[in-house]
């Protein structure tokens, strides 16, 4: 008995540290336990139901065990063997039927949700259709009905059903917006997966949830859910042409070094579209444009763009930009400034 207490005492500090470390992982915007929108809410309700059932089972089993340990413990001088209950039909029926009932209570809403959340709204004119194409290590969002392609930031109208059809351009990734919906894999080889969700107004963090290479953990994106009128203004702004830098040196550097892979205007490009990049919440998905130290990288949009152009290989290892261009210090600054001003005026 003494030894066991020593063991618990020794483990206690480790438990405490683990609790603190694991609690620190629970950033609010990355938690499925803070559901935003109906799909996440339905999934959260299922979690609550299953935890409730588990809790009841644990409570009943523990209480019964405690009761039996105390009530039927061996008393001094008592050497009789307790009554044996092997083959007791009544008991066997009870402990078979109760779990079956509990599983049915869990199975009915689970199956209902599985089918409801797997519904295909690709032909629903009320739903916003988006094609998601995952790349190492960024996200492409195509709005086929609107003729718009963007990257890293999925802009949607609040409250509207968003139907995503997902594929991958290279390896398997997984599309996950913890606050809005469950995870869904993106497959190479044109195998399409689908999912739908909707969101209240706000910005929600998305992650790649499938190990896909050196920068897997940095494959972040945002869902920006805005009012219907803001969304309409965004769709108009996204189709307008973009002027090149007024400084001819910066313009020629941009064209020869950047626009071979990217586009600043509404046209398609093989790598992330830079149209309206000055209005995005982050650069490269991970450099959040904020002075809030909570994100680790404090920086304005300009700071982050400059830092990204200069150091993207260290910021996001194995991304395809490294070594693909050559820019002088002046050109990097000029391009960062130009991109900072590529804003879209659409929010309320
Ligand atoms: Cu990935």
From TrEMBL:
Belongs to the cytochrome c oxidase subunit 2 family. The gene is coxB. Signal peptide: none annotated. InterPro entries: CcO_II (IPR045187), CcO_II-like_C (IPR002429), Copper_CuA (IPR001505), Cupredoxin (IPR008972), CuRO_CcO_Caa3_II (IPR034236), Cyt_c-like_dom (IPR009056), Cyt_c-like_dom_sf (IPR036909), Cyt_c_oxidase_su2 (IPR014222). This is Cytochrome c oxidase subunit 2. Residues 245-343 form the Cytochrome c domain. Residues 125-237 form the Cytochrome oxidase subunit II copper A binding domain. Subunits I and II form the functional core of the enzyme complex. Electrons originating in cytochrome c are transferred via heme a and Cu(A) to the binuclear center formed by heme a3 and Cu(B). It comes from Paenibacillus yanchengensis. It is found in: Cell membrane; Membrane. It is a multi-pass membrane protein. Keywords: Copper, Electron transport, Heme, Iron, Membrane, Metal-binding, Respiratory chain, Translocase, Transmembrane, Transmembrane helix, Transport. CDD domains: CuRO_CcO_Caa3_II (cd04213). Its cofactor is Cu cation. Binds a copper A center. Gene3D superfamilies: 1.10.287.90, Cupredoxins - blue copper proteins. It comes from the Bacteria. The chain crosses the membrane at residues 51-72, 93-115. Its EC number is 7.1.1.9. It catalyses: 4 Fe(II)-[cytochrome c] + O2 + 8 H(+)(in) = 4 Fe(III)-[cytochrome c] + 2 H2O + 4 H(+)(out). Residues 24-121 form the Cytochrome oxidase subunit II transmembrane region profile domain.
